[in-house]
Specification:
The protein contains 13 helices and ten strands. It is an alpha+beta fold. It has three domains: 5-79, Winged helix-like DNA-binding domain superfamily/Winged helix DNA-binding domain (Arc Repressor Mutant, subunit A), CATH 1.10.10.10; 87-128 and 230-335, 2-Layer Sandwich (Beta-Lactamase), CATH 3.30.450.40; 135-227, Enolase-like, domain 1, CATH 3.30.390. The strands form three sheets. Strands 7-3-10-9-8 form a five-stranded antiparallel sheet. β1 and β2 (66-67) form a beta hairpin. The longest helix has 19 residues, at 317-335.
């Protein structure tokens, strides 16, 4: 059923009001929200048509109606007017993420925390799926007199880092040599082709320093394994318990699903570029009934990971979507410098 302009306006107003209050919406309130351009009686007739078409439902005998999943889908696809983030909000996000930009893992974790804190729902970041990815660059640098950090970057946009303690101390020239050796040996090579034997060959090139710097080579192998898999960082799960939309059984089911991060990672990495909102009724997972996932990509060239918000269908999309998009853009920009 193709809705006319007035019916679309009623759907948009009903969804906006329901998001704000969580209460069934009546014709009188809708008339006020639409500037009293039409009478309550006319709106009641339009609401009856919308109910018959599946856009509104009456939860009990009161005159109020609530929007259905079909109404939310129409709202998200065609009717939603995003609220622009203020320059002050954008600057606050940028400064918060910039403070963590020196460490890719910390940056992604901070992005997830920031989104959960700002929206009051759960947030997650999924690192890129490394299947078929190749090593782009390896960097090693001292972090103290007896510690050094190793950073692995792949052409899929995955970034992994590890700090290692070196009992023998850090000799900058040896670290530089090891970094050159790893890049010469593995740059452009698929992660799946990197083996213990190939790393041992690099160790042999360092002669007497090979054993002394073995912690870094062992860490490199671990990072290769980690970069081959998508990883989930989740924040704000307890925020979900504060929403009245989640009865205890539904909340328990959702939190159990989120604890199995492989399932969530599979959902997020399956989404193409762009921003998508998956309503609970559209998901094959029954644990997501009554929930929405807003997901977008970060990174460049379609090879990045995913950022998402997880909350009730009655989520403030107008505020959440632009915030999620700006965080993704900022994370992409900061990761591009590595």
């Amino acid at each position: 059923m193709e809705l006319g302009t007035r019916k679309q306006q009623i759907v948009a107003a009903a969804v906006d009001a329901y998001i704000r209050t969580g209460e069934p919406v009546g014709s009188k309130l809708l008339a006020e929200l639409l500037g009293n351009a039409v009478s309550s009686a006319t709106i009641r007739n339009e609401m009856a048509d919308l109910a018959a078409a599946g856009y509104l439902m009456q939860p009990h005998t009161s005159a109020g109606r609530i929007p259905t999943a079909l109404a939310f889908r129409l709202y998200l696809d065609r009717l939603l007017s995003h609220c622009s983030l203020s320059e002050e909000s954008k600057l606050a996000i940028d400064e918060e993420l910039l403070s963590a930009s020196g460490d890719p893992e910390r940056l992604l974790g901070r992005a997830s925390d920031l989104l959960a804190d700002a929206t009051g729902v759960a947030a997650a970041v999924a690192t890129p799926d490394g299947k078929g990815a190749c090593v782009q660059r390896v960097e090693i640098f001292p972090t103290g007199s007896q510690s050094a950090a190793i950073l692995l970057m792949t052409d899929s946009g995955a970034l992994r880092s590890r700090v290692c303690r070196l009992e023998s101390g850090c000799e900058p020239t040896v670290l530089a040599r090891l970094s050159v050796s790893l890049n010469t040996e593995f740059s452009g090579k698929a992660l799946s082709e990197i083996s213990v034997a190939s790393v041992q060959a690099v160790s042999a090139q360092l002669c007497e320093n090979g054993l002394l710097y073995m912690p870094l080579l062992t860490a490199f192998l671990s990072l290769v394994q980690e970069a081959s898999e998508s990883e989930i960082r989740l924040s704000g799960q307890l925020n979900l318990l504060q929403h009245p939309d989640y009865p205890i059984d539904r909340a328990r089911s959702l939190l159990a699903f989120l604890s199995h991060r492989e399932s969530l990672a599979g959902m997020l990495t399956a989404h193409p570029g762009g921003l998508h909102v998956v309503l609970g009724s559209e998901s094959p997972r029954r644990e997501l009934d009554g929930s929405s996932i807003i997901v977008t990509r970060y990174g460049h060239g379609g090879n990045g990971g995913s950022l998402c918000l997880i909350g009730p269908v009655r989520m403030d999309y107008a505020q959440a979507i632009p915030r999620l998009q700006h965080v993704a853009q900022t994370v992409s920009r900061l990761l591009a410098v590595f």
